[in-house]
Amino acid sequence: MTAVRFHLLLALTALAAAYPATASAMQVKTVASGLDTPWDLAWGPDGAMWVTERSGRISRVDLTAGTVTLVGELKVTEVSESGLMGMAFHPDFASQPYVYLAHSYRSVFGIGNRLLRMRYANGRLTDPQTLLDDIPGAGNHNGARLAIGPDRMLYLTTGDAGDAARSQDRKSLAGKVLRLTLEGKPAPGNPFGNAIWSYGHRNPQGIAFQPGTNALYLAEHGPSEADEVNLVEPGRNYGWPEVRGACDSDAERAFCGANQVMEPVVEFTPTLAIAGAAFDGPGTLLVTALAGRVLLRITLTPDGRRAASVERLHAGEFGRIRDVLVGPDGAIYLATSNRDGRGFPAADDDRILRIR
Length: 356
Hints:
- By secondary structure, the protein is mostly beta strands.
- Helices cover 7% and strands 43% of the residues.
- It has one domain: Neuraminidase.
- It is globular.
- 47% of the residues are buried.
């Protein structure tokens, strides 16, 4: 065995010991199949599961019959990781039936990302209204996860769009968490007087608010090392590209001290390409992994700033896993992403799975 292979084996063995696989006696059922790169799963205020597909489709899923009903379709630019991405619902959906969506489009500068909303009526989404556009986009690193916060503000993650320096530039919308009103304007109380809530992000594709504390957590893609789960605080710098993971080199420690960098709750090296995130109870964060092909169950410390333990669930069983959703029935729902150009799809991929 060569020295390089020996050291690689040691590293993988250490990683497996740190994040052990957990045998599962859970029941798994396919509730929908034949999808094309489902990106976001969400429980609608109408009591149904909704799903976006990267090619531009928005659908409702009948979990009993396994049927997928198209309710809207957008013209998007789907190149590599770009396309239709995040989705969220107006908190007063009964009186203001708006669905918020983030997608890529072809701009004069190449690929851009925009936030829009559509009205849901009579089983269809209509009247698309652009709320914010000219968000830097690219074939990769678009971020674009959406969530309505407990403060009734709209949170949108953005990636660095392949230009890492943008993440530290507070004049750019790239590499940020944006906090917006429900009309798409910069929210009052933002730390810099614009739309930016936090900065120094690389490619955050998971977003979740912790029950009880309302703390905001992100799952972020790292480069070849240091995928990060981050606790987001307003105005904080998360380091990219000067810092990867914890502040653990002389240069990183100097930058972190001078720029109030927030270190991650937990990081993963080699990277797993972590994507979707959802809480399964106040202290348990579920995070999906694309390249890692695993569901991570992260138990947080009582203060929420570190991971007390990490379990690996369903490793390699479903292929690439894009998103996770915890249902009102207590079940966990996963969206696979094997048709995204980087996986090996089975005949019925992509799928939505229910785990009990």
